[in-house]
Amino acid sequence: MSKSSSFLSKTEIMDAAEQTLRRFGPDKTSVTDVAKLLGVSHGTLYRHFPSKAALREAVTERWLEEQIVAPLEQIVKAPADNALAQLKVYIARLIELKLHYAEQDSEMFKMYTDVTMEAAELIEVHIQRIMEQMGILIDRGIQQKRIAQSAATSSLARSLFHATSRFHHPAHAHEWRSASIEQEFEQVWQLLEQGLTASIH
Amino acid sequence: MSKSSSFLSKTEIMDAAEQTLRRFGPDKTSVTDVAKLLGVSHGTLYRHFPSKAALREAVTERWLEEQIVAPLEQIVKAPADNALAQLKVYIARLIELKLHYAEQDSEMFKMYTDVTMEAAELIEVHIQRIMEQMGILIDRGIQQKRIAQSAATSSLARSLFHATSRFHHPAHAHEWRSASIEQEFEQVWQLLEQGLTASIH
After folding, report:
1. Quick check: B2 pLDDT over 80?
2. Where are the beta strands (DSSP E) in chain B?
3. Predicted pLDDT of residue A84
4. pLDDT of res. A6
5. DSSP designation for B170
6. All domains of chain B, ordered by start, with CATH?
């Protein structure tokens, strides 16, 4: 699969990087391994990604967009009579996706975990995407008079995201194996739902 | 400070272990280092603590009890007209204590973080202590008709603990430096407070 570096696209590099990461794991993968797989020089790769961290972040960013944000977008786009119930489905799906990747795609999940700890900016961009999606559902819920506008939409979205961190933040992945984790989410959600609807009842 | 092993108490061993941990850090401290400081043999220590992990867990357990649970007990014991406000003070203090130790006692905090990831049972016992304290405040709030009994007290306590994990769970320590962290807690608390009082208004 050797090819002229002039035709090397960022997508091709990221594909090769993802393949290499899955094979060797995020700690052992070097830029040289990726270059080898592409049949190009180390220097060629560095022209596109100035450091191993930059490459790792680009791969993580794409992974988050394709594997987390895209499936969630389906829920946001689906018409729903009850946007509050849809908001719970959205968060439950976010949790389910994280659990799925923690178990089924552990190398990529480990890389995402490392990047979460190290690249605050990239993760903040990802969280912004999630906030926007949740914001659409919250606004819909306010219009349907199922959610009380007790604070700005963005603030409600962020609070819901933070209050459910234990169930979707990768640092908690080792707690997700607990037998009571689903029940615990149900209980947290019940309290949050009461908070979201408080002024309506 | 060499002394006969027959007089060696668990407390003395833990004191020496804590001192050694602070000096060398949790990763580099060995049982031999602790034995050296006490002037006893390696074997003598193993009679009290069968592994390095056991010693580390005992030290962490004592640290959590003395540095976290004991100061929080002061809040629980103080008489208060508004147990809901007191509950917020309690959680804010829990957050403040964790932040303080993350910054001021980083070796012990690192050990506590490691143990949190590895010794689920010990941490569950600690969380039970926190749940009991929060439960007292919740029951007081229900009696004062400031908190709605929307679920069992223990379930409400656990949900509050989980919903605020981002602000006190050691895996999130690197996020606590954010300039907006206090405001974010305020917003999460507002939503939770609305949930706690929902059926009362």
Report:
1. no
2. none
3. 97
4. 58
5. G
6. 5-48 (1.10.10), 56-197 (1.10.357.10)
pLDDT at B172: 94
Which one-letter DSSP state was computed for residue B150?
S
The residue whose two tokens read 């208004």 is B201
- B115: phi then psi, degrees, rounded to nearest 5: -65, -35
Tokens 């917003």, residue located: B187
- For tokens 């919740």, the residue is B138
B165-185 pLDDT tens trace: 999 999 999 999 999 999 999
Give B95's contacts (C-beta < 8 A, 6+ positions apart).
Answer: B164, B167, B168, B185
Look up residue B162 and give its two tokens. 């989980």
Binary contact (A199, B197; C-beta < 8 A): no
B183 touches A159 (CB < 8 A): no
**C-alpha–C-alpha distance, residues B106 and B114, integer Å:** 12
Do residues B76 and B40 touch, judged by C-beta distance below 8 A? no
Residues in chain A with CB shorter than 8 Å from the CB of B150 are 190-191, 194
What are the pLDDT digits (tens) for B15-37? 999 999 888 888 888 899 999 99
Task: Give the Cα separation of B50 and B188 in Å (integer).
Answer: 43
Of residues A41 and A5, more confidently modeled? A41
Give every CB contact of residue A190 below 8 A, 6+ residues apart in sequence. B150, B151, B159, B195
Distance of residue A42 Cα from the nearest chain B Cα, in angstroms: 33
Comparing alpha-carbon positions, the chain A residue that sits nearest to B149 is A191
Taking residue B158's Cβ as centre, other Cβ atoms within 10 Å add up to 23
Tell if the CB–CB gap between A201 and B197 is shorter than 8 Å: no
Which two tokens mark A121? 């900016």
| Residues of chain B neighbouring A199 (CB-CB closer than 8 A) | 194, 201
CA angle A30, A168, A100 (to 5 degrees): 70
Residue B1 has pLDDT above 50, yes or no: no
Measured between CA atoms, how close is A2 to chain B, in angstroms? 42
Burial status of residue A175 (CB atoms within 10 A of its CB: 0-12, 13-18, 19 or more): buried
- Tokens 């031999």: give the residue: B32
